[in-house]
Amino acid sequence: MSRPAGRVLTLLELLQSGGTRTVAELADRLGVQGRTVRRYVDQLIDLDVPVESVRGRYGGYRLAPGYRLPPLMLSDDEALAVLLGLVAGRRAGLTTARLTAGETAAAKIRRVLPKDTARRLDALLEALAFTDRPGEFDTPDAGVLLTVADAVRHRRPVAVRYTDREARRSERTLHPYGIVAHAGRWYVTGKDARIGEDRTFRLDRIADARTLPGSFEPPAGPDPAQRLLAGFATADYRHAVTLRIHGTAAQIRARLPAGVAILQEHEDEHEPAAGRDRAAERWLRVELRAERLDWLPPLLASLDRPFVIERPGELRDLVVAHADRVAACARRAEPPAG
């Protein structure tokens, strides 16, 4: 922050302390001349800060009664980043339970920006269009989110009231490792002290969170985001699928990300492990869980890599049927002979 901008904020702090401040007093506190104080006051007025001029022997400047909101000394780029962040957060579901919070925050920011900057940003937001529609998200309670975040930072256990996807309510003691935002929802990963196992909980399903005495030491290993994705890939769905795909990890991850599948080295007796190049194409074992199988045949075709289906047999039948449909469509598109 530049020195003049810092002095303007210092002037505001002095005025917010109450009473009327003379020009001489303010000039002395800021280390500037009286005319510079008047220029700083004009800058605050331009920011819609209600600075009142008091005439007379003991005159000077004061704030209008009840005013406590400081201005935001933001450049155009900074203001644009903040407002676009609020818009993106609302569309991605990264907001608190009060869905209007982003809108009211943006309105407050616009009110304390210079009129010209606010007008230009309003024009951008009005002109901005998105190719996707904003989703409807189940957002967490702000108090729960902040309580759990504080427990993560200080490694404190929390007591939570949780409702699972079957609408069953329970009270649990959680050792929270971290908070993860994924696909428009908030999650907390940690150990469920009642069963002594790691679990992932949706924060919007926690009705209450209360910090408990004591502390815990988080385990070594994957970070909270990796734990969350691994949990999704091994969730208890109807079908357990095991594949072998020949390619690089990057090629496979382009279609089967960590939240969908687990990749493992496939032991090849003809190739010693010490000599493998991790960036080279090789056979990798892929494991995933799925409620339905019908989305896998076109996805495997889009990989354009050799693959073997180890299980289930039903998936092999679906892949063959998909290939037959594609071949039949290709034959119908051929022009007649002669």
TrEMBL record:
The lineage of its organism: Bacteria, Bacillati, Actinomycetota, Actinomycetes, Kitasatosporales. This is Helix-turn-helix transcriptional regulator. InterPro entries: CBASS_pafABC_assoc_protein, DeoR_HTH, HTH_11, PafC-like, WCX_dom, WH-like_DNA-bd_sf, WH_DNA-bd_sf, WYL_dom. Residues 4-63 form the HTH deoR-type domain. GO terms for molecular function: DNA-binding transcription factor activity. The keyword ATP-binding does not apply. Pfam families: HTH_11, WCX, WYL. Keywords: Transcription, Transcription regulation.
